[in-house]
Amino acid sequence: MRVSDLFIYPLKSARGIALPAADIDAYGLPGDRRAMITDAQGHFITQRELPDLARIEVRPEATAFRLLMHGKTDISVTPPQPENRMDVTVWKSAVSAAVADPESNRQLSEWLGREVRLVFFDGQARRTANAEWAGEATPVTFTDGYQILVTTTGSLKALNADLAAHGEGSVGMERFRPNIVIDTDEAWTEDRWAAIEIAGIRFDLVKPCSRCIMTTQDQLTGSREGPNPMPAMGRIRMSADRRVPGPLFGWNATPRGNGRITIGDTVNIVEERPEGWALKRRAAA
Predict the structure, then answer these.
(1) From residue 81, how far is each of 98, 213, 226 by CA, in Å?
(2) For a tag site, which of 67, 146, 235, 265 has the least CB within 10 Å?
């Protein structure tokens, strides 16, 4: 097995950036989900509420954070002042975040048709993953909950096979917004991985990822009119474990070391979960 793709998402819920290689630290991939859009009260906003976020492209630059959207004038966001802060929430987490300058927030609000704030996870921000799954004091940024999302090509192939069997089209891996994609022949083999090693770095697969309406959205346009993977996941990937309800695709992972990984790196299984993950039985046709 080898690493086939690497991605970061500098702005939570905006378009991803494909990388040929990536450093790994305690937070995951540097630059991943270090910015986020909130409402005026500081509650995070994603494609679940604003599908147009899928249309925003991010270009990190040496002295700015550039946002692009087709038909709009680019927004060049200068580094925020550390003292300009607000408390924001990501699910149940409260974070003190740095806030972008007023003009950038005004332009972004015009783009999205509602009042929003652009905030940054800077050196003063603090947040940790759920200790029940990831262990004590594992730091995260503005991700939904964990440092890294791992998916496999074999599982996407199996999901698309079910979609095709029901005349429902096919979807790409971008629908699932992974950080590390692993090329595998076998589908769902990741359910049995407790830990993997890439380039000498251990990654603990701590919790399967339950999926939501974002997987139904085209990741370039935000449209929900195209092929929809939710029915197939409902047929073959419904969790039977109440701790993680709903359809599953991919695993949340926590890195246990620092280093650098590259597309093509070998992936080794260093600890297994023989029982896999409990799934609901598929109803007979």
Answers:
(1) 7, 35, 41
(2) 235
Q: Copy the structure tokens of residue 168.
A: 């429902």
Per the structure block, which two tokens stand in for 12?
């939570």
Longest dimension (CA), the chain: 60
Q: What is the pLDDT of residues 186-205, one digit of tens each?
A: 999 999 999 999 999 999 99
Measure the CA dihedral 270/128/125/10, to 10°: 50
Spatial CA neighbour of 207 closest among 245, 153, 158, 176? 245
Task: Report the first-to-last Cα separation within the chain, whole angstroms.
Answer: 34
The strand pairing partners of 24, in sequence order, are: 259
Domain 2-28+130-272 has CATH 2.40.33.20: yes
* pTM score: 0.96
Domain boundaries, the chain: 2-28+130-272, 35-120
DSSP state of 280: P
